[in-house]
Write a structure and sequence with these properties.
This protein is α/β, with parallel strands linked by helices and about 240 residues long. The chain has eight helices and 14 strands. β4, α2 and β5 form a beta-alpha-beta unit. The chain is globular, with a radius of gyration of 17 Å. The relative contact order is 0.19. The mean pLDDT is about 90.
Length: about 240
């Protein structure tokens, strides 16, 4: 399929690990290479063909909303009516009326990357073009463990030859060669139907991806390049050094 016109950009998190940089601002407005994290992601998605961006807001929401004013195609999903952010799945479910029923892109704001080949949005386009809703519930963008910075985990997935993903825990392995890099395309309807209000998608959090992987409906696409997970101040510094090369 082609790149969806709509993306859900997840920017409501508390940014606890990014403190003190998030004492007075949302994580989305922490700068890397002179630009806010959310601008890195919005520009990347726009380059791929996305024209409508649903951004959820909770922590320091006023600052985030003010920053986004005047940006074409941005619609805010305001989660401040809840005590805490709704997590990945809950944020998507809450924004159902803004997102619609067709497949959407979902993106974290703490993900920055440099691709080996031009054009720079090639990986996102390839991710979407390989998505088959008849066979897949979601298709995740992946980075090689050895080309990842700012990520202190043991690796997330194995990628089978037919594109199916097997989680590290499901494989009974201590580590895995590939990391989920914060962008995926998904049929949102099963997320809307989930009975909980606040819930995640990742298998380790009891989310939907575990069941989809067991059914062979969680697939992946590999990005060739350097991925920077910007989750804390040290990771921010590493990302700035990589972007400055």
């Amino acid at each position: 399929m082609t790149v969806p016109t709509t993306a859900m950009v997840l920017a409501a998190g508390l940014g606890t690990r990014m403190r003190p940089l998030t004492d007075d601002r949302p994580k989305a407005l922490v700068e890397v290479g002179g630009r806010a994290l959310i601008d890195h992601m919005l520009d990347r998605l726009a380059e791929a063909g996305v024209s409508r961006f649903v951004v959820n807001a909770h922590a320091h929401a006023d600052r985030l909303i003010a920053h986004l004013e005047g940006r074409p195609g941005v619609v805010v999903s305001d989660e401040r009516g809840h005590d805490l952010p709704l997590e990945t799945g809950g944020g998507i479910k809450f924004a159902q009326g803004l997102l619609g029923e067709a497949p959407i892109l979902v993106a974290n704001i703490d993900s920055v990357w440099v691709e080996d080949a031009e054009p720079p949005a090639r990986a996102v386009r390839a991710l979407c073009e390989g998505f088959d809703p008849a066979r897949m519930a979601a298709r995740l963008l992946l980075a090689r463990m050895e080309r990842t910075s700012g990520f202190d985990g043991p690796g997330d997935f194995y990628l089978e030859s037919d594109g199916r993903l097997i989680g590290r825990r499901a494989a009974g392995a201590a580590t895995a060669p590939l990391n989920y890099m914060g962008v995926h395309i998904v049929d949102p309807r099963p997320i809307y139907a989930h009975p909980e209000t606040a819930f995640g998608l990742f298998p380790g959090g009891g989310g939907l991806w575990g069941g989809w992987a067991a059914e062979g409906r969680l697939h992946g696409a590999l990005m060739e390049g350097d991925w920077m997970h910007v989750g804390d101040p040290a990771a921010r510094d590493e990302a700035e050094a990589r972007l400055a090369r």
